Amino acid sequence: MDRSKFIQSSSWIRVLEKRLLSHQFFLRLADAPSLKDALRMLNDTIYQTSISKLEKDTDYEKALSQELLRFYKEMYEISPSNIPIDFTVVKYYYHNLKVMAKEYVKKEDLSHLYVPLGNLDIFGLRKLLQENSSSKNEYLREVKETIRLYEKTKRPSDIDINLDRCYFKSLLKLADEADEDIFYSYVKDTIDFKNIRSLMRANAEGADLEFLTDILIDGGNIYKDNFYNYLNTKIEPDSKLFKYSNIYKYVKQGTEFFGKGRSLSRFELLVDNEMVDLIKNAKKITYGPEVIFAHVIAKEIELRNLRIIFVAKQNGLSSEFIRERLRDTYV
């Protein structure tokens, strides 16, 4: 990837970074007395426009969705290459493909679940699928393959499992196209996290080797075959399985938390925190695709934090509850 093409866009991103919400700001939001107060505190931020259009406070998801669409449109316009943005947008593509496959096998209209983001014509693909039309589109091929698998096994979980596998193959392909260390680290670390979480889930459910084989993903830093030796055994915080991996300190926290009888949900927070630590390295880079990629990840996590706060405020949950679930921030 020609780094010199990112000189102008990287300079503009540094300006946009000033709009990102800080960790201290999120702590103040967590202490807001109510959902209405939390929304009001965003009046002087980039979210003001979308929030001001809400008919009622509980419609905050509309404001977050509008900001997400606005943000990605801006990023695609700024970046000289789609690749640094596609790394996060592709997860929405596969979310939509899962919806498409499920509505096809259920014979239901699930169009309200689609996220119309990025350059993939999801409704065009949906029409091709419904009409059983032929196409060389890779995404359509993957959906059809997933549907055939479901029709063979009749296991709804196979839809998610197969498309997750396709998703990570797509990410690894993007990393090869980008050919920059940060993108390989992002994909491989994410796969390792997912596989460790899958192993712990399999152990908690007393699953067999066939199940574990089905849900493990190829392509991580930790070889997939290594996981089989830990099936139906307690995963210690200092397990050799991941002790020498990039994500060791995060997985250690997750296994300690799980070992105290708590859920695997902690891993979702730790994955996000590891990604924040990863992209903070981009602050040292003057220009390049990493600068745009880091900004996109930072925005995704910012939106996640806002959603956590709004949902908690709507349900009357405490500030302490919110603080425990807030992700680290880029600024």
From TrEMBL:
NCBIfam families: PRK01198.1-2. It comes from Peptoniphilus lacrimalis 315-B. This is ATP synthase, subunit C. Pfam families: vATP-synt_AC39. The lineage of its organism: Bacteria, Bacillati, Bacillota, Tissierellia, Tissierellales. Gene3D superfamilies: ATP synthase (C/AC39) subunit, domain 3, V-type ATP synthase subunit C domain. GO terms for molecular function: proton-transporting ATPase activity, rotational mechanism. It comes from the Bacteria. Belongs to the V-ATPase V0D/AC39 subunit family. InterPro entries: ATPase_csu/dsu_sf (IPR036079), ATPase_V0-cplx_csu/dsu (IPR002843), V-ATPase_V0D/AC39_subunit (IPR050873), V-type_ATPase_csu/dsu (IPR035067), V-type_ATPase_csu/dsu_dom_3 (IPR044911). Keywords: Ion transport, Transport.
